[in-house]
Write a structure and sequence with these properties.
The chain contains 2 helices and 9 strands. With 187 residues, the chain is α+β, with helices and mostly antiparallel strands. β1 and β2 form a beta hairpin. The protein is globular and about 35 Å long. The N terminus is likely disordered.
């Protein structure tokens, strides 16, 4: 039953994007979405990550279900827009300045990858939420544009070691898709 709800949400998102593209409707802040799915064939992982351009950066709101092993899991924006090969096709962390791994919200663009969101905390029921702002990122262009890239949920904690935090395999993945109007993927 829960899986069919996710399929319906994905279908609705596609319809909203088609309508918005054809009508040219583009009011309000620029927004985007990534629908997270597990990378393994029978994975229960699913969820949504919403992106909203705000003054000075990108507001990120994540709501993810079905994640095994409660606790912290690495959560990053990766360079390429593909979830193929169990998420490996997403490439490395989004790092346009070739700087060390860190926590972007704390360390800034000179001391952290642009895609370094840190960890998302999973509760005993496999549910995780995140609400943060990443400075300087956008959906509309420039060096820190994340549109078309991937969001990855890792199997383990990001311990902030070099070069990428030792967070293990990629258990969830979604492509960051800009929305062109007032549509909402949850309608």
């Amino acid at each position: 039953m829960k899986r069919s709800g996710f399929v319906v949400a994905a279908a609705l998102l596609s319809i909203f994007m088609l309508i918005a593209t054809r009508t040219g409707h583009a009011e309000g802040p620029l927004r985007g979405v990534a629908l997270i799915k597990g990378t393994a064939p029978d994975s229960p992982i699913r969820g949504i990550v919403k992106f909203t351009e705000i003054a000075g950066g990108l507001k990120i709101e994540a709501d993810i279900y079905g994640v095994p092993n409660p606790g912290d899991h690495g959560f990053h924006i990766h360079d390429l827009g593909s979830c193929d090969d169990m998420g490996k096709a997403a490439g490395g962390h989004f790092n346009p300045k070739s700087v060390p791994h860190g926590l972007l919200a704390k360390d800034g663009h000179d001391h952290a990858h642009a895609g370094d969101m840190g960890n998302i905390t999973v509760d005993q029921d496999g549910h995780a939420v995140l609400d943060m702002v990443l400075p300087g990122l956008s959906l509309s262009g420039g060096m820190y544009n994340v549109a078309g890239r991937s969001v990855i949920v890792h199997e383990k904690l990001d311990d902030f070691s070099q070069p990428t935090g030792n967070a293990g395999g990629r258990i969830g993945c979604g492509l960051i898709i800009p929305l062109t109007g007032e549509e909402s993927p949850e309608q």
